[in-house]
Amino acid sequence: MIGNRFAPAAQPLLLKGAKPLGFGDKSTSDAPIDIMIGKDDRIAEVSQRIEAGGDVRVVEAKGAFVSPGWTDLHVHVWYGGTDISLKPEQCGAARGVTTMVDAGSAGEANFHGLREFIIEPARENIYAFLNLGSIGLVACNRVSELIDMRSIDIDRTIAAVEANRDVIVGLKVRASAVITGGWDLAPVKLAKKLCRILKLPLMVHVGEPPPLYDDVLGVLTEGDIVTHCFNGKAGGSILEDEDLYRLAEQAAARGIVLDVGHGGASFSFDVAKAALSRGLKPQTISTDLHNRSLDGSVWDMATTMSKLLSLGMKLDDVVAASTTAPRRAIRLPAENLLEVGKPAEFTLFDVVDSDLTVKDSQGATSRLTRLFEPRYAVIGAEPVTAHRHVPAEGSAGGHACPHCGWKS
Fold first, then answer.
1. Residue ranges of the binding site for Zn(2+)
2. Worst-scoring range by mean pLDDT, 46-55, 217-226, 315-324?
3. Which is it for the CA torsion 247, 179, 259, 360, positive or negative?
C-alpha cells in the first residue's frame, strides 16, 4: 500500500452490514458481512456479526455493496507538472477510488516531481506509467513529447524505472499522428523493446493514425495494455473495420488488456455497444480523467462504470473491470482481498435507479437507468466519504484545449 503510509490510524474501523461483491468465489452479494480493520490498516476480522468495542469507529453500510477498492488505471494527476493534470483529490477517494495510475504525465526528466509532490503525500495509492518521452505531458499536445529520437533518453528512462520500481508499473507511449506526426510505429517498437528489458507492461494510447491501430496490436504481447480501445476516431475505430475488430478479438485472446480510457475524445457508445454485443468486453474500465475531461463527458469513475453497465456489461463484470482486473494489469495482489491480515482497501457503494443523460466523447447521448453511487472509500482504517462528481453547470460539452482543440 503506497498511500496513507506515514501515519497509523488513530482507531480501528468496523464496516457493518456490507454486501461483498467482486472478491471471487468466496464472496456473495446476498449475505451482508462486518469487516474489522485494525490500527495497522489491515483486516482483523470478517464475520456476519462483529461487536464494536468502545474505541472502534463504525461505518454503517446499511446494505451497500463493498468491493475491492476501485482502481482507475488511467488518470492524469501530475498537478502543476503538466497543463492537463488534476489534483488527486479531484478523482480519488472522494469519488470512491482508492488506487490511481497516472498514465504517462511524467517522463524521466520530471518523474521525481510527480513522486515527491503527488504520489508520496497522497492518501490514495498512486502508481505511474512512465512516459517514453522525457518531458511527459508538460504542455500536452502543444509541445509533443515524441517529436523524434531527441525526445527520448533511453539510459535515463531505464534508470528512472530502476530507481522507482515501487511506483512505476510500466511505460506509456501515445501512438497517434497528433503526437508523432509521420514517425509512425517507431516509438511503439522502441517502448516495447524497453519494456522487454525492464520486464514491465506497455500501455499504448491508440488514436488518429498513423500508426494504425492494427499495427500497434501486432507489436504488443501478453500483459500489455491498449487504452482507448473503444474510441470512435476515423481510421482507429474497431466498429468501422471488420479486420481490425478481429485483430482486437485475437489480441484479447492472447492476453492483451483492452482498457476503456474514456477521456474527452476516446470513447464511443456505438463502438462499445457493438463490441459488447459481439462478446468483446474491456478487461479494465478507466476514466482518462484530466482537466479537459472532468466536467466534459467523463465526470468520474462511477459514471464511467455506469456507462458500461448501461451498454450491456454485467454488474459483476463492471466491478471486476474496475477493481481486481486493473490491479492484475499492474501486478498488484488481486486475490483473497478479504482475508485476515491483508491490507484493507475497499469501496462502499450502492447501485441506484436513475434517469441521467450522459454523453460519450463524440457528443452522443445515452440515458443511465442504473447508477453506481460511491459512499465511502476505505484506505486502511480511514473511511473517506465519497460521492459522484457533479460537473460545473454549462460544461457538459467538454473542455477543448484552447491551442489545438484536443480533448483526448
1. 74, 76, 172, 205, 228, 288
2. 46-55
3. negative
